[in-house]
């Protein structure tokens, strides 16, 4: 009897260990997804939005991660990311656990490796909002659960999913549209450019002279554009980017951690504030819409555009919740099967 119990116990332990050691799929950026996977995430987000808006209280979704923990490993401040992630975790019955830079030992007397091993051993996934892209890569290398890139200095995939959903809602489609980015070369446009092209949207990026678009992202964008018979360009004249644009997007010019560069940045971006006059002179399409992932500063876009009936900024902000839900279902509940 003792041998039988020992054998069964060993078998159970082996199965659990094997299951935990299987390498999870992570969300790092839009480059790693194909067109169908991105479309599936956007459609999932739209479906969850319909459920939430309808007030449906079916216990099916709320029990998918019941009793599980969702870790929020944040080294940067957040409004939309924190609220949307905690809300999405709660929707599936999970307990969100916020781990700010002052809450844990990471960076004080514990390494990234040790922290990752510990957190991933007790949670169902880790949403990581960090400074360096290398931090995301390190987390992915050592984590036994999915890492969801919730922002790093190179990519912002949750925002890209959100923005494609918002565009699709506003226009009823994505195919055949043109997106104009007027602003800095940063993590938001890196993922948004790829996601837009994967969704059938032409992309024109206008950045000031002296600002460089990321080479790897640019090469991938040109590759996707060529495959899908779309247009991708990087220019230095906002009027060129705005020509026939349907969607006009900008973001902050001064990211967290760059505040001391503000004076020089403002000089470099002179003439880049989005105004009705700029849009009219650039000859954007008559049905143009404006987007901004927030927080917004007035030097980036004036009130006449930001608060106009053409602005989608607050719908866009709300959609972060549904994007987070879609990602949790795809990467955690469905274990990385994005088409399920």
From TrEMBL:
Gene3D superfamilies: Aspartate/ornithine carbamoyltransferase (3.40.50.1370)
Keywords annotated in UniProt: Amino-acid biosynthesis, Arginine biosynthesis, Transferase
Amino-acid biosynthesis as UniProt keyword: yes
SUPFAM superfamilies registered for this protein in UniProt: Aspartate/ornithine carbamoyltransferase
One GO BP annotation of this record: citrulline biosynthetic process
GO cellular component: cytosol; mitochondrion; ornithine carbamoyltransferase inhibitor complex
Pathway: Amino-acid biosynthesis; L-arginine biosynthesis; L-arginine from L-ornithine and carbamoyl phosphate: step 1/3
Name of the protein described by the UniProt record: ornithine carbamoyltransferase
Organism lineage string: Eukaryota, Fungi, Dikarya, Ascomycota, Saccharomycotina
This protein's encoding gene: ARG3
